[in-house]
Each structure stands twice: as structure tokens, then as C-alpha cells.
Amino acid sequence: MALRNSLIRALAAISIIYSFSTPVLAEGEKQQVLEPGLDGTLNHIKYEAASTPPSEATISRAIERDYYKQKYMNTITDEGVDSLDQSSKRYWLLWCMYGFERHGIRYQNEIKKWAVRYAGISEKHRKIVKSSSDYEKIYDTVHDLWGINGQIAKDVVTHALAYYSIPRDELDRFILVQEYNENWDNQERVNEAIQHVVRDWATEGQHERATAMKTLTDMLTTHFPSRSVSQPARVLVPGAGLGRLAHEIAELGGFSVTANEWSAYMRLAYRYVTSLRKKESETNHPFLDWWSYQPSRTEMTRPVLFPDSVVPSSGPQEVVMVEGDWTVEFANDTAVYDAVVTFFFMDTATNMLDYMDTLSRVLKPGGMWINLGPLLYHDAAVEFSLEDWMDVAEKGYGFEFVDVPEEWGPLTLKSKKARNRDIGYMYHKESLRRNIYNAQLFAAVKKETDLDE
């Protein structure tokens, strides 16, 4: 914590010094590209003071953003494809870029395989198909549309290379080495990230976001009625994925929001989507990869426009995204946040108690923890029932559970203040299949305990 604060103070000092030598731009104003004069300097340029100087909240957000970016950049400074190993963060960042770079061609190759399988059916059956539908055209159609999807994935890579200051030739060499050694990329993870673009940043995902996210933002609004831009409530959203919930909270005003995500696949997609400055400027065809449960070929090939909302790149409503494992990245933060919102996240832990340690430490005494999600464990060391989990949170970590909106649903357990509702997760609303969880909503206030000492 002390190290983090000292670095933030140093960055603040640097920003003050920088402000004396650099023209100050009003919030929302774009910096022009300035050409040097004949003497090679910019002395011929006359600057006018911005009509609206940046607010303290804007400066604070910028300092925190720059601090966390530099902190992450310091962990990926190792270069040289041949010397990288799988313990290197730079290796895994390049690995994820590798997957996005090859996204289009991988699926186009799969389409060719599917077409070969179809060609293997009998001539009789092919005649039946030809005489009754134009099904055979789907292979060429989908092949071409995957070219569009592949370009979006390449755009993710292009943005990432610039953001992380990684040379293109380094990535190209990395890919060549991996493919030479037959280390094939993980398209399942790439596709998952792209599907989250639909869930978080397209109107097609609104049916999932509407109820769940609004319930969470309403609870925060109710709990912090006196917040303001000058005195914001600090909120942490770990496991933020592509970040829509964090941005929805920030848009309420009076909240200083920090998001966190471990998966580099998610972070690469998030950085790209939130860099877009025009609403619904990009097109993807997200329903091509799975031909099961499709009501029609028209629906399967339908384009989706994104983003449905453009987020501020600066100002009090800017969200700071922290990259990495939250149990590590926030290890030195004690009593920093007024609220932590865990949304479809806590059950991703290998050890739930590690998450509880971090949660309890980063929250201020009296801080609010709001949780919404299922209990879907993934080879976890500890797999609590809901009752066990809430007992541990209450008796082991000093959380006091409070009432949550009755409208969410009935109490799951008569003795506990958790309510449940069936909500969808990552499904296409026109699909013939639904992915539904009985999601648990609860909230708790952190009390002072021996664990705080």
C-alpha cells in the first residue's frame, strides 16, 4: 500500500511538472498533431488556455490508470521469442494475440472440413437436399463471413500491439515458432471473448444485462445516496470480463470504479472495444461457430453491430482496468474500497478462501460486498455450498448480511439473506437452447474483525 501511494504521489508530481510545459486541454478536447516550424521547434505555435481545466477527479483517474498500466508493463519487459518460457507474462500475452491473429483462418479451415463431411453423404441424399433447399450454399456463405470475423480479431491484435508497445515482427516470429512446434492456439478462449463482446457491448446482449446489472447498480445507488464527484465512493469489480458492469456503475456518477480481469483474452477484447469512438461502428457474425440449436440460417448468419455504447476515455467516469490476478494485484491494498461487486466471479476461485482474504482486506470497515452469481466450481480445492459459504463469510471474515431486494426472488434458505432467480448467461435469445443459472443475490457489510489486525 505504501509503495502504491508513493508511486501515485510521484506520478502526480510528474503530471504537475508536465502541465507547465504542455498545453492543457479541456475534457473531451482532442490534441492536434503539431508540425514543427522551420527551426525544428514548436515555438511558432501559440497556445490558448482551455476553457474548462480538468477536474481533480479526472486527474485522479488518470494517475491511477497510468500507475496500473506502468505496473503491468513492467512485468512484460522481457523480450526475445526464443528466450521466453510459459512462466512469462509476455509469453502469455503473445499467446493470446496468436489466437486472435489466427481466428479467421482457423474457422475457415473448419468450414472446409464440414463441407468435406457433407460431401461424404450419398448422392441420393445430396439430391434430396438440393431439390428441397439451398443448404449447400451455407458453406461458402459462412466461409466468407468468417473472413469478416477474422478481420475483427486482427483489429484486436493491432490495437493490442500498439497499447502494449510490442513490435509486430516479434508476434509474427512467436507465431511461426509455435506453429513450427505444433503448439496450436486456443480458439475456444478467443471465441469466448468475442461472444462476451455480444453480451457486454451489443444490443443483442441487453436481455442478459438488463435485469442483473440494473439490480446491482440500483443497490449501489441506494447504499451510497450522498456520493458525489468530489467525494466518490470507490468501487472494485474483480473478474470484470469485458467490463460493461464496471462502466454501468461509473456512468451513475459519484463512483470511482476500478475493474480487474485475469484473462488476457478478455483484456485484449476489452481494450479494443473500449477504444472505439463511434457507436455500432463494427460488425461481427457471432453465431456462426455452433450450428446446433439454430432456428434458421438467416439467424445463424445475422450480423451484430457493436459497441452499443461509447465509453469515456478520460474524466471522472473513466474506469481503470487492472490486469492480472486480483489476489496478487491488490495484495498491498488494505481498506481502500467502499464496495466490491462480484458478478459471476467468486466461484472461479481455485481456493475460495484466497478470494475471501482479498475481499475482506480491500474493503473498508463498513464497506459493502454485493454478490450475484451461481456456484459453478472449476476443480476447486474448496467447494462450499451456499450455506457453508455464507457461514464462513459471516463467522470467519466478519461480514454481516443485509436484506436485498425482494423483487429479485424468493429466499434460497430460510436462515440466510440470499435470494435467487433464474437468469441466462451467454446465450443467444433466438437460439433453441437456453443456458440458465439459478443466480444467488446477497449483500453484506464488513465489520471490524481480528483478521484486520
Automatic annotation (TrEMBL):
Signal peptide: 1-26
InterPro entries named in the record: CARME, SAM-dependent_MTases_sf
GO molecular function: S-adenosylmethionine-dependent methyltransferase activity
Keyword line: Signal
Pfam families found in the cross-reference section: CARME
SMART domains (UniProt xref): N2227 (SM01296)
Top-level taxon of origin: Eukaryota
Protein name (Swiss-Prot/TrEMBL): N2227-domain-containing protein
Organism of origin: Microthyrium microscopicum
